[in-house]
Amino acid sequence: MRIATWNVNSLTARLARVEEWLEYARPDVLCMQETKVSDGAFPSLPLSALGYETVSNGEGRWNGVAIASRVGAEDVQRGFGTGADEQGARLVAATCGGVRVHSVYVPNGRAVGSEHYEAKLAWLAELRAFLDRTCRPADPVVVAGDFNVAPDDRDVWDPAEVSGATHVTEPERAALGAIEQWGLADAFRLLYDQDQLYSWWDYRAGNFHKHKGMRIDLLLVSKPLADRCRYALIDRNARKGRQPSDHAPVFVDLDD
DNA sequence: ATGGTGGCCCGGCCA
């Protein structure tokens, strides 16, 4: 089973690239973030033509998450369901082929110490609480998406250059750690320990070509799935060419 | 070069 995640930075603008990628990577499940499309305008038909059913949680102009699956999508949940401010449409979950799959788009946080940074930490704490009340770590669970946190210094191009900035601070890493402590592991790190393997590069200043990126797109898997991880890839090629997202898709292959 | 690119959708916000 191949499960993927990709911040597409507008599914409307990226539809051709997403279709192309689905055709050659053929994931069983693709979690998408920053779809920037309302549920009513979601392009379900072209994805259906490729064999994928889709579920989305989208507000329109900003944020938005979705799951495309060719192994079913049952028991859909949109958002935390607490009635609290969710800072936009950032969570959708469905059961796909027996795996509870969550597509998440963690708030960016902007500047350290800003209200947005504090809200990012609060959102991560809400995600942990959501897992506590909706799933069990002994079951097959995936939490995949753009976490806007680089788990450790291997995951940034220059720890000194970004030191103290968002995505790499200790409180953000601790909040991510609290989610992992629920019973999840970073599938990529179960398999590989190299540095300089990134999933996002700022559009600005030619950062992609300078290899200045971060690994912030993660597939967190529960123990029953961690034991099945065989292979993972950040598809850097999908960041190249015409009209790319600023993120590359990432996938993990699970043994049956 | 105190910006830079790109998405939303048309002036500025967001990443």
Q: Could you characterize the architecture of this molecule?
A:
The protein has 256 residues and is of the alpha+beta class. The longest helix has 20 residues, at 115-134. Helices cover 25% and strands 25% of the residues. The chain has helices at 11-25, 44-48, 115-134, 159-162, 170-181, 187-191, 223-226, and strands spanning 2-7, 29-33, 53-57, 65-69, 74-78, 91-96, 99-105, 141-146, 184-186, 217-222, 229-234, 250-254. It is globular and about 45 Å long. The chain has one domain (2-254): Deoxyribonuclease I, Chain A, CATH 3.60.10. It is built from 7 helices and 12 strands. It binds one DNA strand of 15 nucleotides through loops.
What's a quick, concise take on this entry?
With 256 residues, this protein is α+β, with helices and mostly antiparallel strands. It contains 7 helices and 12 strands. The protein has one domain: Endonuclease/exonuclease/phosphatase (Deoxyribonuclease I, Chain A), CATH 3.60.10.10.
